[in-house]
Specification:
Elements: E1 10-14, H1 18-30, E2 35-39, E3 52-55, E4 58-61, H2 72-81, E5 86-90, E6 93-97, E7 100-104, H3 108-115, H4 117-132, H5 141-149, H6 151-166, H7 175-181, H8 187-195, E8 214-218, H9 222-235, E9 239-241, E10 244-252, E11 257-264, E12 269-274, E13 276-279, H10 283-289, E14 290-291, H11 296-304, E15 307-318, E16 327-330, E17 339-342, H12 343-346, E18 356-365, H13 370-373, H14 376-390, E19 398-411, H15 417-431, E20 435-437, H16 440-443, H17 449-465, E21 481-484, E22 490-493
Parallel strand pairs: 1-2, 1-13, 2-9, 6-16, 10-14, 13-20
Antiparallel strand pairs: 3-4, 5-8, 6-7, 10-11, 11-12, 15-18, 15-19, 16-17, 17-18, 21-22
Helix pairs in contact: 1-9, 1-17, 3-4, 4-5, 5-6, 5-7, 10-11, 11-15
Length: about 500
């Protein structure tokens, strides 16, 4: 009796960012018979927010991406994709506050000198008060950070920048975001890092990512990683369809088959059928595009999810060697810019002319507001004036510039976001078992690309096994995977190969 050949799984992947492409590559690497189709709305670039934009031979990031992960699997993935094109770069960043530049991470004596003896003493008294009388069970960003650093240091080094990024009061931002982005960092750890000789950690899991000294970086920017990854996916038989926006996903409960509807830039509509859908699209958009429709409560939850957008103004400038950092956080409320990058410090190959440099000024905004809607010429003029005001270059040294707008760059962690995500997630999991959410916007988790990649790796393992081996929502902000045991104990393991037992799927 001859064997019945199983039909290869058909997988539709929404989005060709780090999560989508990692999923496609991971699936095809294990099973080249799979039919993989990646649908990407951008007509030119893969990589999502990790893409590298090119302008007249200059290349620049959308956000800046340090390639460092506590996950060996993620680091191995990067090496496998770009074995000969990863640079080792020194980490260098500063904070601009009250007309002065402060090294970040903190250099204790420099900070003491620049803040002044009185201000430094007040900061330490504030820190002591916070340690003695912390806010119990802090719910918002301000209380969480003030518990860690004291109210005065919070006001100096966190409040202004954070409110620029999010466009809302620190009291309206969930403490979840602080816990995720500042994990492991405290005033004590920062001072210890500044004063004591650095010891090599016993393992990657002991590293505080906020305090790393070096990182890897593709020589032509992060987009190079995802451009090469996309080519490898196609070489293995996968399809990547550019300039195509997904408009709806319909699930047939009888056949267990998805129909994914899409439209290209010319308005041509198309459909593909799939056994599984992997989505890195914004959770809000996905939830509203599903058929059969979600319940009223789930639709309301989807509609309630919010996002923050931003604009990058790239300035090409005569290089006076005034700025050697990767980036500078701008805490000064007198300028609108939130962060300034020097792309030449990331990789000299991003700048084709050695006599020039390229700065990226990031303006955080909401789509449709004054900044977002300003003409490119006005944004470039604003960036030139603010670059000079901060002291990074003279406006007359700027020779050219361009503007890139990035919608839905950051999922917003407001007071109610966690409830909305839980409501939406629970319904998706109960009604659509072959729909898999991955990545930053796909899971409404403010994470780095290594975290997004790990969620995709785990989803790929689930699809290949045809069962839920891993609860992707247990991937934390360091791309570690937390295994939930039957007895309620937790152990943190990094990556796939370290997981010794299967994990029962749970929506908890």
């Amino acid at each position: 009796m001859s064997e019945v050949k199983m039909q290869p799984k058909r997988v539709a992947i929404i989005g060709a960012g780090p999560a989508g492409l990692t999923a496609a590559y991971s699936l095809l690497k294990k099973d080249k018979e799979m039919e993989i189709t990646v649908l990407e709305a951008d007509p030119r670039y893969v990589g999502g927010i990790s893409r590298t934009v090119e302008y007249k031979g200059f290349r620049f990031d959308i956000g800046g991406h340090r390639f460092f992960s506590k996950s060996k699997e993620v680091e191995d993935f990067w090496t496998e994709i770009l074995p000969d094109d990863m640079l080792d770069r020194p980490r260098s960043s500063r904070i601009f506050y009250r007309g002065k530049f402060f090294s970040y991470p903190l250099k204790a004596f420099e900070a003491l000198f620049k803040l002044g003896v009185l201000e430094s003493a007040l900061c330490m008294l504030s820190y002591g008060k916070a340690r003695a009388m912390p806010v119990s069970n802090p719910k918002n960003f301000e209380d969480w950070v003030s518990n860690k650093f004291g109210k005065r240091l919070f006001s100096i080094f966190f409040k202004t920048y954070t409110e620029k990024v999010w466009g809302m009061s620190c009291k309206e931002i969930s403490a979840d975001w602080a816990a995720q982005r500042i994990k492991g960092l405290s005033l004590a750890s920062a001072v210890k890092n500044a004063l004591l000789p650095k010891k090599k950690p016993k393992n990657r899991g002991d590293v505080i990512k906020t305090l790393i000294d070096t990182f890897r970086y593709p020589r032509l920017g992060p987009g190079m990683m995802w451009e090469v990854c996309a080519e490898k996916v196609k070489e293995m038989g996968g399809s990547i369809v550019m300039g195509t926006r997904v408009t709806g996903c319909s699930y047939d409960n009888n056949s267990k088959v998805w129909t994914v509807k899409a439209v290209d830039a010319k308005g041509n509509q198309s459909e593909i059928q799939a056994d599984h859908v992997i989505s890195s699209a914004p959770m809000r958009e996905l939830g509203l595009s599903l058929e059969p429709k979600l319940s009223d409560s789930a639709i309301k939850a989807a509609e309630s999810l919010k996002y923050r957008d931003f604009v990058t103004v790239a300035l090409i400038i005569k290089d006076r060697e005034q700025f050697s950092d990767n980036w500078i956080y701008i805490h000064d409320p007198n300028v609108k810019v939130g962060r300034v990058q020097n792309f030449k410090s990331w990789s000299p190959e991003l700048v084709p002319d050695p006599d020039l440099c390229c700065y990226g000024l990031e303006y955080f905004c909401f789509k449709g507001d004054g900044l977002w809607s300003s003409p490119d010429s006005e944004l470039i003029d604003l960036a030139k004036k603010e670059t000079e005001k901060i002291g990074l270059a003279k406006a007359t040294d700027v020779v050219d510039g361009c503007v890139v707008r990035q919608p839905k760059a950051y999922p917003i962690y407001d007071d109610e976001y966690a409830d909305h995500v839980a409501t939406l997630r629970n319904e998706l999991e109960s009604r659509f078992p072959t729909l898999h959410l991955v990545g930053r916007n796909g899971m409404h988790k403010y994470n780095n690309q290594d975290h997004a990649m790990m969620t995709a790796m785990l989803v790929a393992e689930n699809i290949l096994a045809n069962e839920q081996l891993y609860n992707v929502w247990q991937v934390n902000e360091d791309a570690d995977y937390h295994e939930e045991g039957n007895a309620g104990d937790q152990s943190s393991v990094s990556g796939l190969r370290s997981v010794p037992t299967r994990v029962e799927y749970s929506s908890n």
